[in-house]
Design brief:
The complex is a heterotrimer of chains A (257), B (365) and C (267).
Chain A (H helix, E strand, L loop, with lengths): L1 H28 L16 H7 L2 H34 L2 H16 L2 H14 L6 H26 L2 H9 L4 H30 L2 H6 L7 H10 L4 H28 L1
Chain B lengths: L3 E12 L2 E12 L3 E5 L6 H9 L6 E6 L2 E2 L10 E4 L11 H11 L4 H14 L15 H13 L5 E5 L7 H18 L2 E6 L2 H7 L2 E6 L2 E6 L1 H6 L4 H6 L4 E10 L3 E5 L9 E4 L9 E6 L5 E3 L9 E12 L3 E7 L5 E7 L13 E6 L4 E5 L1
Helix pairs in contact in B: 2-3, 2-4, 3-4
Chain C lengths: L5 H11 L2 E2 L5 E2 L5 H5 L3 H34 L2 H16 L2 H12 L4 H8 L13 H26 L2 H9 L4 H12 L1 H16 L3 H6 L7 H11 L3 H26 L10
Antiparallel strand pairs in C: 1-2
Classes of the chains: A mainly alpha (257), B alpha+beta (365), C mainly alpha (267).
């Protein structure tokens, strides 16, 4: 038993090393003075300064934030209503609707990308930030719905009955009991949708037009033109941002309890 | 009809294909503590949910204070439910939980405060008003649930297995307390329970229910002493039974013989109520009313039958005996453990089982 | 919402039966040629490579993920949160960045080669990037968290006393795993496999960056047909058959186990 435990521990540690070593190396070399070499040539902040002055990059960051904010808002409203609506459907019809709602989650993202591309071309809508935002919303609605619905199913239906019993109308029961209890799940879903939108490459790749370059698209084109310490610096910043987002979500959830 | 609080008329409720409530009619009087007693799956909770408005009856009618509840949603019924799991709102403090109903009815702030405080006083929780439900013990949560219902001064409070989640000792304390609170506020309580002692201790009247039907309604004493059917009798603890035939009839008693046991003389039992046309009867006896002794003790007891000890169980507070009267009849006897002087019997020993006519219940078949 | 999802899918289906126009557009004459094209040995190899890589990725993730998920679930509660957080951070980190990290390590002038030469293991750098192995590493690295989180959810629910009962009944470590732990965590195993298999099969970024022109996967093929060759009907036929493949896998899962083990990883 003890030997098994030691084996488990070391396997887990090896796993974590595998997960973190590449990221750690990446961040470390973002401070490397040499442009070409993979050997350490002394520290510098130069690459970060180059990034901050890159106007195209800043424009891409701006685009990404706008798309993420708008699509997260839309996906949250639609996803929460879908989850709540689903819970009220009779069991028979629920299964079909649920399946349809979850389908975007199980098809490959490339498929969704090309489908949206064809769709926008067919209805002659020019590709722009708007089409990117629509794409991200379509991608995020089921994710929000699934997270909220998982919480909704764990809620004791008797709590709503108790509210009704105490004189609340169905709307008051939703506002005063269901919604506050769903809040942690909704916050989690918002953060998830926001992060996924910020990071999304494939759907964006197919639905973006000229002038609607988002941060991942920019990162992709930078990577495609070759390894450089600027990309390392940018990556380090992105890792930092995602860690900050996780920290934020943990903080919010801790305060709730 | 002034003193009828709740009336159920011929209620029928199906859950899918199963009949949960079967042509049920009941009248609950204003201000009484009424219990519905029955095994799990008897349809008790469904009945309560019908009164609360969470389910609609397939047939029949519910009247609360003479007003039909048909098409009245739960939030407009003058009825409040104490849920089995309490269903306290986990994100609200004790105070806000109790105040919820008053807020929904837009009671003014000052009155709301004083009514919530009074309700919390009554359940002895005034010092915990700002706690969250998760910070309370099971017993305290139960009291909050009760206060949350009482504070609205409904016509009826419905209680679904109110003490089911509590441990034995707390349960006994709360039985008395619930009863006292009910007397104090004078609100009609309808309580559903599968716990016989609980129902008998707290209630003014008890309805025994099984398979969606009410089998008997009466005071705890009536139900306990004079069950009118075998199902009620068994549920109320009369587990020894013997079928027989009436041979002679007296004023208040009669004598029966049974083909199932060899007896020297017919057994003296109470005379069953009603006409004596059918002379086939069933005798039922409580294990705790039987006496076990080495001789027949004629003179002290009306009846004595011989038996052989099959099994002895020592539970601390009492001795339990399994006794064989004949090949087909096996009875139980429970004797309080009264100390070292008490006569103890061993497996295989031949003994007499003695009882008086009043100890048994006789049902015509 | 449905408009932006189901109508586009139907368009893809429709286009997959149309013909390619002269100028790269779509000509609405019904044909099955696009599907016939799929049997082309060139495409067939890409399909085969995709499925093989996706299967290998799933198997490796399971192998690596199970011990990790199990020891997280068995750690003291206080530590579980921290461990989970450590698994979540890469999951929330940009996929491009994580793939780029491997480019940085594996390329000819990269860290791995530099390190091996400096250590004297070899004298000449070798080509590590642009191979199936590089893709496999990238995919496993990218999707490992998808495996760990549902596995954790399943093992966490596992009642430890059941495992102890197995020990008590003379089971060895190996048979405890096979006879008790694995069957009880099966829903999590299946959910994790699905969550890894689907994106691996349709992967685009990983093969694009870590693989070369010779190591295309289906995702790249679709992109290539759409955006480079501008042969939309053929691209549609390929995407539709990819989706059919994935849906078959998911349906097989639903058959064995009812419901998707909800993305409990989310919150």
């Amino acid at each position: 038993m003890n030997r098994g435990r030691i084996w488990l521990r070391s396997a887990s540690l090896a796993n974590l090393l595998f997960l973190y070593l590449p990221i750690a190396v990446l961040i470390l070399f973002s401070f490397n003075a040499s442009r070409l070499s993979a050997t350490w040539q002394g520290g510098t902040f130069r690459w970060y300064l180059v990034l901050v002055e890159d106007q195209a990059l800043l424009a891409a960051v701006h685009n990404s934030l706008v798309v993420a904010a708008v699509s997260t808002f839309l996906a949250t409203v639609l996803g929460v209503s879908a989850a709540v609506g689903l819970e009220r459907l009779p069991a028979g019809r629920r299964w079909t609707v649920e399946g349809a709602l979850l389908l975007p989650l199980v098809i490959p993202e490339v498929m969704l990308g090309v489908a949206l591309l064809l769709f926008f071309v067919m209805i002659k809508v020019p590709l722009s930030l708007v089409t990117v935002t629509i794409g991200h919303t379509v991608w995020n609605v089921p994710i929000v719905a699934v997270i909220v619905q998982a919480r909704l199913q764990k809620l004791d239906s008797r709590l709503v009955e108790a509210a009704l019993d105490l004189g609340a109308t169905p709307w008051q029961a939703f506002r005063r009991v269901t919604l506050p209890l769903l809040t942690p799940a909704i916050i989690g879903a918002v953060l998830m949708a926001f992060t996924l939108s910020l990071d999304d490459f494939i759907v964006t790749f197919f639905t973006a037009g000229p002038g609607s370059t988002t941060l991942p698209l920019k990162v992709y084109s930078m990577i495609k033109s070759g390894v450089s310490p600027e990309i390392n610096a940018l990556s380090a910043m992105l890792v930092l941002i995602s860690m900050a987002l996780i920290g934020l979500s943990l903080l919010v959830q801790r305060q709730r309890h | 009809m002034a003193d009828t609080s709740v009336e159920l008329r011929d209620l029928v409720k199906y859950h899918g294909a199963t009949l949960a409530v079967d042509h049920l009619s009941l009248e609950v009087r204003a201000g009484e503590f009424f219990s519905i007693l029955g095994p799990s799956g008897a349809g008790k909770t469904t009945t309560l949910r019908l009164v609360g408005g969470f389910e609609r009856p397939d047939r029949g009618e519910i009247l609360v204070e003479g007003r039909s509840m048909q098409n009245v949603p739960p939030n407009l019924r003058p009825v409040n439910l104490v849920f089995q799991t309490y269903a306290l709102f986990p994100h609200m403090t004790v105070f806000n939980n109790v105040a919820f109903g008053l807020e929904m009815r837009r009671i003014r702030r000052a009155e709301l405060r004083s009514r919530v405080s009074a309700a919390l006083d009554m359940v002895k929780l005034s010092d915990k008003h700002s706690r969250l439900p998760s910070q309370l013990s099971g017993g305290e949560q139960q009291r909050v649930a009760l206060a949350r219902a009482l504070v609205n001064r409904p016509a009826v409070v419905l209680l679904d297995e109110p003490l089911g989640a509590l441990d034995q000792q707390l349960r006994q304390e709360m039985q008395l307390e619930l009863k006292a609170i009910q007397k104090q506020v004078g609100i009609t309580f309808i309580c559903v329970t599968h716990h016989q002692e609980e129902a008998l201790t707290m209630s003014d009247r008890v309805a025994v229910m099984n398979h969606g039907r009410v089998l008997q309604v009466g005071s705890p004493q009536e139900v306990y002493e004079s069950p009118t059917s075998e199902v009620v009798a068994r549920f109320i603890g009369l587990s020894n039974h013997l079928s027989g035939r009436i041979v002679t009839v007296g004023g208040t008693t009669c004598r029966i013989t049974s083909p199932d046991i060899p007896t020297t003389q017919p057994l003296l039992v109470r005379r069953p109520p009603g006409p004596m046309e059918a002379n086939r009867v069933m005798l039922l006896l409580r294990p705790e009313r039987l006496h076990v002794s080495q001789d027949a003790q004629a003179g002290r007891f009306d009846n004595a039958v011989s038996a052989r000890i099959e099994k002895v169980t020592y539970t601390g507070s009492e001795m339990q005996y399994l006794l064989r009267l004949s090949d087909s009849v096996l009875w139980r006897a429970r004797l309080p453990n009264s100390g070292a002087r008490q006569e103890r019997f061993r497996v295989g020993e031949a003994v007499f089982l003695c009882w008086n006519a009043d100890d048994g219940v006789i049902l015509t078949e | 919402m449905g408009i932006f999802f189901f109508i586009p899918l139907l368009i893809v289906l429709a286009v997959s039966f149309a013909s390619r126009g002269t100028d790269g557009g779509v000509e609405w004459t019904f044909s099955l040629t696009n599907y016939a094209h799929l049997a082309d040995p060139l495409y067939f190899r890409i399909y085969g490579r995709s499925i093989a890589l996706a299967l290998a990725t799933t198997a490796l993730c399971l192998l690596l993920g199970f011990p990790l998920a199990y020891s997280i679930a068995r750690a003291p509660i206080r530590w579980q949160g921290i461990w989970l957080l450590l698994v979540m951070i890469p999951f929330w980190t940009n996929f491009l960045v994580r793939t780029y990290a491997w480019m940085f390590i594996l390329r000819t002038e990269g860290l791995m080669n530099t390190l091996l030469i400096n250590l004297g293991v070899m004298t000449q750098p070798i080509e590590l990037l642009y191979s199936d192995w590089a893709i496999l590493i990238g995919l496993v690295y990218g999707y490992l968290p998808f495996m760990v989180l549902p596995l954790y959810a399943a093992t966490e629910r596992l009642d430890l006393s059941v495992v102890e009962a197995a020990w008590d009944l003379y089971a060895t470590g190996w048979s405890v795993f096979w006879r008790v732990i694995l069957p009880l965590t099966k829903p999590g195993v299946i959910a994790g496999c699905i969550l890894v298999f689907i994106p691996s099969l349709g992967a685009f970024i990983t093969p694009d960056l870590l693989g070369g022109a010779k190591t295309m996967m289906v995702g790249n093929l679709i992109q290539h047909e759409y955006l480079v060759m501008r042969d939309w009907p053929l691209g549609s036929a390929i995407s539709f058959s990819l989706m059919a493949l994935v849906l078959l896998a998911v349906m097989a899962y639903f058959k064995t186990d009812g419901r998707l083990d909800r993305l409990e990883r989310g919150v």
